[in-house]
Amino acid sequence: MLLFSVLAAAIAPGIALLAYFYWKDRYDAEPLHVVIKLFLAGVLIVLPVMIIQRGLLLWIGDESPVAFSFITSAGVEEFVKWFVLYHIIYNHTEFDEPYDGIVYATAVSLGFATVENVLYAFTEPVTFGMLLARALLPVSGHALFGVFMGYSLGKAKFSAGRAVKLHLALALLTPLFAHGLYDYLMQTIPSEWLWVMVPFMFLLWLRGIRSVNHANARSPFRWVKREEEIKF
Predict the structure, then answer these.
(1) For the packed helices 140-157 and 74-88, what is the interaxial angle rounded to 10 degrees?
(2) Of 54, 87, 109, 131, most Cβ neighbours within 10 A?
(3) Which residues of 10-94 form beta strands (DSSP E)?
(4) Does the predicted model carry a pTM greater than 0.85?
């Protein structure tokens, strides 16, 4: 029973956050089976990410918080997520509005974060309070990094010319910077000063919600829905 409770506590935050961002799609909800496919892709990339990170640790070590945060941790994780999204969903027919990038990117990110949370729960001595703290920090952090990636992917998908490459690059660099900064702060701030992560996470959420609203506002389906409401 305790094993099931710990497992549920480790999985629940990722599922809840994915449901939240899925339901924030105001105009044209994505097929659930495609979202689940991307979530499972996030689950599957955990092993190759761990192998690459292990190789980098052996090569460059972990003495430098900057190198570890922005290369070994955030660099590898965000690049692999970006690579999977670009090759699986970017040219998919269901990617038909800017907000779709956010849904699919958060699905991949939260699949990854959920496995990471489960591994932490069963390899470290944890309490439910610690799992709650992880839900508020690393799990929601991964969700927001996914929002930043998906927002730029959505802009790239519906741009033209040089703007496409610019937004594709931002889809990688923006979450990489936010993730790297998060990891750097977690490594370098003394435990008694960890409260400074609260305003940092607040700023991430503020930026994330703004991205959600801007992406929804650019949906080509919003006019269709308005016309349907007027006719009704």
Answers:
(1) 40
(2) 109
(3) none
(4) yes
